From TrEMBL:
Keywords: Leucine-rich repeat, Repeat. InterPro entries: Leu-rich_rpt, Leu-rich_rpt_typical-subtyp, LRR_dom_sf, LRR_domain-containing. PROSITE patterns: LRR. Pfam families: LRR_8. The keyword Lipoprotein does not apply. It comes from Meleagris gallopavo. This is Leucine rich repeat containing 10.
Length: 251
């Protein structure tokens, strides 16, 4: 058993997980990123103390059910695989705080994600999402949602009913109009660049916007008693700001 309760087998070109790893029952962190894995042994569920599991950059077409038996998981990396869905058994991971499912083959956000009641961070960018399920509003602990590089033609209305959100990223979609986000009391950052939008989302004072017209006021500007409309459509875009990913919280 490793002294630090961590095993890192990333980038080993593994096609299967060595079975002896499943005997390390006190293991807390297991990194299997950047391999050629397509399945995991049922014995994986013996790792009942596991809190962080990284399966990103592999060849999974389905999430192995043994993963859903790891009830202490709080961070799960599934990005850059070939997942088209997630199993209903994922709902068993009620301690999950951070879920990465970016760069898969998801055409819709699986409803089971809406049952992860303690989820704080959801990375679902670079899929083929066109909408979000209305039940997403059940995630009252959700603080940041990353949806860049999808096929959203409209701003997801469910996000307007999630007052705890601090970060909304809808960069690189197909959104043409943004509703006001000024009523979201927890919002700190909204990223909406690279959309064919004709307006910037209105936000409360102190909220950072990253995108076209981010430094402009979307409201008409008054001068000498007359209202002068600001033409946002014709203004040149400012240079895109660097998008900062949040640090992963410890469990």
């Amino acid at each position: 058993m490793p002294v630090d309760k961590m095993v890192d087998l990333s980038g080993r070109q593994l096609r299967r997980l060595p079975l002896h790893i499943c005997s390390f029952k006190e293991l807390v962190k297991l990194y299997l990123s950047n391999n050629n894995l397509t399945q995991l042994p049922p014995e994986l569920e013996q790792l009942q103390n596991l809190q962080i599991l990284a399966l990103d950059f592999n060849n999974f077409r389905a999430l192995p059910l043994a993963v859903c038996a790891l009830k202490q998981l709080c961070i799960l990396y599934l990005g850059n695989n070939k997942l088209c869905s997630l199993p209903l058994e994922l709902r068993l991971l009620q301690n999950l705080r951070t879920l990465w499912i970016e760069s898969n083959c998801l055409q819709q956000l699986p409803e089971v994600v809406c049952e992860l009641s303690l989820l704080k961070t959801l990375h679902a960018g670079s899929n083929a999402l066109r909408t979000l399920p209305t039940h997403l509003r059940r995630l009252r602990e959700l603080r940041s949602i990353w949806l860049s590089g999808n096929l959203l033609a409209e701003f997801p209305s469910v996000l307007l009913h999630m007052p705890s959100l601090e970060v909304i990223d809808v960069d690189r979609n197909a959104i043409r109009f943004f509703p006001s986000l000024a009523h979201l009391p927890g919002l700190k950052l909204v990223i909406y660049d690279h959309n064919p939008c004709r307006n910037a989302p209105k936000v409360a004072k102190g909220v950072r916007r990253v995108g076209r017209w981010s430094e402009e006021s979307p409201e008409p500007r008054k001068r000498s008693g007359a209202v002068i409309e600001i033409s946002l459509i014709e203004r040149p875009s400012p240079p895109p700001a660097n998008k900062a990913e949040p640090e992963v919280e410890a469990c």
